[in-house]
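Worked example (supplementary).
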Amino acid sequence: MTKSSPNIAWGEAALSRPQFIEQVWQEGRAAYRELPWRNIDDPFAVLVSEVMLQQTQVARVLNFWPRFMAAFPTADALAAASSADVLEHWQGLGYNRRALLLKRAAEVCAATLQGQLPRSYDELLALPGVGPATAAGVCNFAYRTAAPYLETNVRSVFLHLLFPSQENVADRQLMPLVADCAATEEPRGWNYALLDLGARLKAETANPSRRSASYARQSPFAGSNRQKRAALLRCVLAHPEGIAAAQAWQLVDEELARAGVAPADERLKGEIAAQLQREGFFRCEGGLLRP
DNA sequence: ATCCGGATAT
DNA sequence: ATATCCGGAT
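After joint prediction of all chains, the assembly is encoded as:
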């Protein structure tokens, strides 16, 4: 049952493979969203959009992708830019690590591929900050070469149509179906249809992806390490000439206080600053935190 | 107060 | 396997 190749178990629903594919094409096309990073062949521009769309919704990315691409139009440009400049353009998008990883990916392309992006899924996957979904996104959308693309909107479509009542559905169950459908003549259009139908389903009904085994609730932001990390980074970026750690933390504590959040204790402050340095967000030179 | 969302390090 | 990483909208 798990192996018979043309007749893999097609979810739990009474929907055949051709019926499923037809329905996704029909409803996905009807729900089509025109987005600035769509229908372009430039793999770097697509990579930037895919990385921004990791853990960040379309509405937010719309405010950032055009400005980012104007500032860093090519992998060479991003590789040559300062981390501070790149992080500045990322502020407000969240999960700042992604910006550093994207810049490192650009540096790999600049150093080893004359500024071009790799063509193959496996080589894309090897780039910093590029996982299975992002690598598949670049293949499908930029190169129009088919690759199984499984992210939240796609997951929602498969769960809604093929696992309508099952809870805790693992990606391991979904992936064979996604891969089966991915073998198409039109990988770009097919995956746009999946994304757009998924987005429509979420707008109309309870998020089907909540029935995914990998769905996780977030811990609260207020009072979190994430909040303090982000505030410290913003503070250091605002002082290009460098700022003493104690002074930076005083400014951060004031900002937290305005948000009704207690200041971090000294031990935590040290750990957060050290962690950010280790990850490459800034350096400590002559007692000054410097982007 | 609750919601949304991929990759990486351990 | 599990913990961690952001911020705005609602």
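Two points are worth noting when inspecting this output. The radius of gyration of chain A is 22 Å. Confidence is low (pLDDT under 50) at residues 1-7 of chain A.
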